[in-house]
């Protein structure tokens, strides 16, 4: 399924009682050319999950040899490399060497293809599996102008647009 919009305006209310982080912001996210709604939904869920780590998280077209999302420190060293597609072992190795932490946010099909094989070879790699039902539910929330409230409670991310709600589990090692 393709998106009918070229840019999504996201009015975001983000709260984390645990870390006392509260932010209200507006950001603009654009689907890549020929990007499916499911892929865009995975990128947005990754963005929302990583928002607390770095509200100004860098976004780019991860197709190829670059991450979908990344966080750099003040010395331009990669702290986090995030991809929402399965990567071949050579690219995982590259990411593992370049970044302090590598996160793959995969749908169930991509996860089954890789079978989590890389995790044992790369200790700085985390993998989050996004259930197909969760992706479809988030796709129902996609609009040209979105209002989302996001709450983080430990390892759980609660997302609502006022009509739909969903919960997303997140690797705890990224929260420290």
Structure description:
The protein is α/β, with parallel strands linked by helices and 176 residues long. It has helices spanning 37-50, 89-98, 108-114, 132-141, and strands spanning 8-16, 21-29, 58-59, 69-72, 78-83, 99-107, 125-130, 145-153, 156-160, 165-169. The protein is 23% helix and 36% strand. The strands form two sheets. It has a five-stranded mixed sheet with strand order 2-1-8-9-10, with helices on one face. Strands 3-4-5-6-7 form a five-stranded mixed sheet. It is globular. The mean pLDDT is 83.
Counting helices, strands and paired strands, the structural category is: alpha/beta
Main beta-sheet strand count, sense and barrel state: 5 strands, mixed
* End-to-end C-alpha gap: 36 Å
Structure summary, number of beta strands: 10
Residue share in β-strands: 35-45%
């Amino acid at each position: 399924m393709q998106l009918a919009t070229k840019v999504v305006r996201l009015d975001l209310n983000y709260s984390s009682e645990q870390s006392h982080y509260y932010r209200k912001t507006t950001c603009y996210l654009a689907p890549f050319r020929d990007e499916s709604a499911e892929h865009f939904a995975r990128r947005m869920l990754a963005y929302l999950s990583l928002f607390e780590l770095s509200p100004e998280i860098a976004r780019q077209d991860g197709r190829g040899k670059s991450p979908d999302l990344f966080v750099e420190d003040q010395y331009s060293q990669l702290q986090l490399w995030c991809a929402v597609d399965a990567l071949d072992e050579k690219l995982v190795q590259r990411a593992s060497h370049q970044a302090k932490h590598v996160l793959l946010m995969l749908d169930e099909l991509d996860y089954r293809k890789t079978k989590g094989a890389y995790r044992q070879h790369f200790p700085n790699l985390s993998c989050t599996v996004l259930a197909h039902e969760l992706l479809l539910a988030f796709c129902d929330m996609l609009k040209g102008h979105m209002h989302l409230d996001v709450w983080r409670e430990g390892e759980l991310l609660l997302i609502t647009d006022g009509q739909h709600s969903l919960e997303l589990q997140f690797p705890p090692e990224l929260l420290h």
